[in-house]
Amino acid sequence: MVILASSICTKTGKALASRQFVEMPRTRIEGLLASFPKLMVPGQQHTTVETDTIRYLYQPIGEEMYAVLITTRQNNIVQDMDTLHLMARAVSDICDVTDQQDVVLRGFDIILAFDEIITQGYRDNVDLAKLRMITEMESQEEKIQEIIENNKQREAKQELKRQAKMFDQQRREAAKRGMGESSMGGMGSSGSILGGGRMGGSYEPLLSREPEPVRSFASASPTRSNTPSISANARGMRLGRKPKGADAMGAMQNEIDLTQSLMDNMSIVGSTAAPAASAASRATPTMPPMDMKGVHVQIEEHIVAVVNRDGGLEQMEVKGDLSLVISDPAYANVQVGVVTNNKHNAQVKTHPKVDKRRFNTDAVIALKDAASSFPLSQPIGVLKWRIVSTNEDDIPLTINCWPSLSATGTVDVNIEYELTHPKLELNGVVISIPLPPGAQPTVSDVDGVYEVDRAHSTLEWQIPTIDASNSNGSLDFSVPGTDAGLFFPVVVSFACEKPYYDIDVSGITGADNEAVDFSQNIALIPDQYAVI
């Protein structure tokens, strides 16, 4: 026969947590538990009471609660008593049995434990140690999803930083242009005053373009004070008048402030972030501010590589794009020469307004319409590529994790890395290995340094640089335990300033075919890099 229900109730029969294993309405189980205290005989030493069809097996937990097992009278009472004792011990492990509110709050965990003990009304072959291991197990899929989400947050932060840098560059360029026009405007106004001409005509253009008009007018005010006469219909400066350009500059400043506040709010707190997030944050380098020139080239790639613990490649994908940021109007119609070596069989696409035929024949990125121009002061993606591979040799950095059980009750773990693409240089590499909760690893050999993250139960293996001169290394440690599968997934994070796809900018020329000086930055970002 089957077990009907397992419950935690008060001494008055109020259900705090209950799991039914047969079809039974809520009113029925509430009625059974409400009648249970009335069947108990004061001073009775037995822990079972019966009706004509139902048997209650109960055990006190705490001072005000009972663990109750509801079965039929035909059930094996010895086996049911053993099940009841395991239930009571499991509840004591999960919550504080002296606090009814804690039992209610942890009710979902209690019901999950009941499901592991009893399946469809029949007792499973589990003990308390196995039950603890099952309830404490972590989902690899959940960890991978957390890694993906954390990488998306980091990517959003980088995008916000890039936008803030671009706005700052625009403001500096506008300030430079405004200062130049200010000095010219001051000279022009003096000439107009001395000649008795129109003063308003020389000032009006400055009002629409200059970020700080008051400064330029102040420089010209002494000249105006010495002027003997001014035309009656001339328009001069009005104090308190809002310049035409002030609205645009104010909106730009508000957008920069909003971007900065978003960057501050998106900062990840180490005590609540996932293990992969802490590793990724340590791996993110602090890049020095780049002096963006009139033409700036940005190459950014995102790599996803998932390898199983046997070495087979589950997934590998690289997505990249080449963007232009043009801040100087003189270079609004440039031509970008690139050098590529498509040995990875990448799928390459150009922007619809880019001359695709010329790119395929001459490897030059240029607009189809020679009379048109690129938008100014904003990133424009002109080239994209995508690489998908099922070949293990295409992985830039291979990780081999070998956990093995020893006769002394410990797990010996050996982890090796190897750089298979010598042209890459990986900086701030962090390899995060999960550990059993509360375990203290004993490290016998390490290339680099390591750190134990007790908050997330991980061992963070840190290698400052992996390149052709330091293409391989290993880490050996041992941990008390009996499960070799607890050391996965192994998560890798790094920073790289060289692209996976073989592409480089050979040169940039303007409309007059003269070479243009440009700035460039490259980033290879691991969105997901793990051994599962």
How does this structure look, described?
The protein is α+β, with helices and mostly antiparallel strands and 532 residues long. The protein is 33% helix and 32% strand. It has eleven helices and 23 strands. It has helices at 26-39, 77-94, 100-105, 107-117, 128-136, 140-195, 200-209, 213-225, 246-265, 275-283, 356-362, and strands at residues 3-10, 15-20, 48-50, 54-61, 65-72, 118-119, 122-123, 295-307, 313-326, 335-340, 347-350, 364-365, 380-388, 397-405, 410-419, 426-434, 442-446, 449-453, 458-466, 472-480, 490-496, 503-509, 519-531. The strands form five sheets. The protein has a nine-stranded mixed sheet with strand order 11-13-9-8-23-21-16-19-18, covered by helices on one side. The longest helix is centred in the first third of the chain and has 56 residues, at 140-195. The two termini are 42 Å apart. The model is unreliable at 182-248 and 265-288 (pLDDT under 50).
Write the layout of secondary structure elements.
Blueprint: E1 3-10, E2 15-20, H1 26-39, E3 48-50, E4 54-61, E5 65-72, H2 77-94, H3 100-105, H4 107-117, E6 118-119, E7 122-123, H5 128-136, H6 140-195, H7 200-209, H8 213-225, H9 246-265, H10 275-283, E8 295-307, E9 313-326, E10 335-340, E11 347-350, H11 356-362, E12 364-365, E13 380-388, E14 397-405, E15 410-419, E16 426-434, E17 442-446, E18 449-453, E19 458-466, E20 472-480, E21 490-496, E22 503-509, E23 519-531
Parallel strand pairs: 8-23
Antiparallel strand pairs: 1-2, 1-5, 3-4, 4-5, 6-7, 8-9, 9-13, 10-12, 10-22, 11-13, 14-15, 15-20, 16-19, 16-21, 17-20, 18-19, 21-23
Helix pairs in contact: 2-4, 6-7, 6-8, 6-9, 6-10
